[in-house]
Amino acid sequence: MTLATFRTTPKGLAKYDAKFVVEMKAAIHKANLKAAKKSLPLIRKATILAPPASDNGRVGAVDTRRLLRAWNVLVEGGVVRIVNPTKYAVYVENGRQANSRPPPSSALVGWVGRKLGIYGKKAQGVAFVIARAIGARGLRPRNIVKGSLAEIREIHARETEIAVDAMLKKLRP
Q1: N or C: which end of the chain has fewer CB within 10 A?
Q2: What is residue 110's predicted lDDT score, i.e. its pLDDT?
Q3: Does 64 lie in the same domain as 51?
Q4: What is the pLDDT of residue 61?
């Protein structure tokens, strides 16, 4: 990172200081947004390569690809976040504790049809049994975001450095 060196008068310093605060806030926001957008492919790749949630599971959290497609960057009130609005994203990321409340069996009926080829009333019954088993045994966390944090932090640090350097060069009196 390059440090800015310049000479100025007290009056010029006051102007610079006021401008600096505004420009720094904008530069950090821009860096946050750019870093979040650059991090999305990492998170999507981690979703595809997520470890199984159980001994019988498969690699990847991509049954319908809905979770994969839902990763997005959200900006609210100047705060930049990477989000996944699917109802089950938190359970995929953090898993489910054993001996906890089971998921609603209605959420598993589609999975039972796709994976087991069972449909109708029978699918509802099988989904109920699977939901109870998930409640009793739990599910391992997939750590999609947690596993990507080191790389995301590197991207964020790099983008912040670039944005601040550009802002300082722009502000030189």
Answers
A1: N
A2: 94
A3: yes
A4: 85
Kindly give the parts of the chain with pLDDT less than 70: 1-8, 173
Residue at 4 is within a domain? no
Residues 48 and 73 in one domain: yes
The total number of structural domains in the chain stands at 2
Q: Is there a domain that residue 5 lies in? A: no
Put residue 99 in one of left, alpha, beta given phi > 0 → left and psi -120 to 50 → alpha.
left
Structural domain includes residue 146: yes
Residues 147 and 63 in one domain: yes
Please give the structure tokens belonging to residue 27. 């530069």
E strands, the chain, in order:
72-76, 79-83
pLDDT for residue 3 = 62
Q: Are 114 and 141 in contact (CB under 8 A)?
A: no
Judge contact between 3 and 160, C-beta under 8 A: no
Residue 62 has a pLDDT of: 86
Q: Quote the pTM value.
A: 0.81
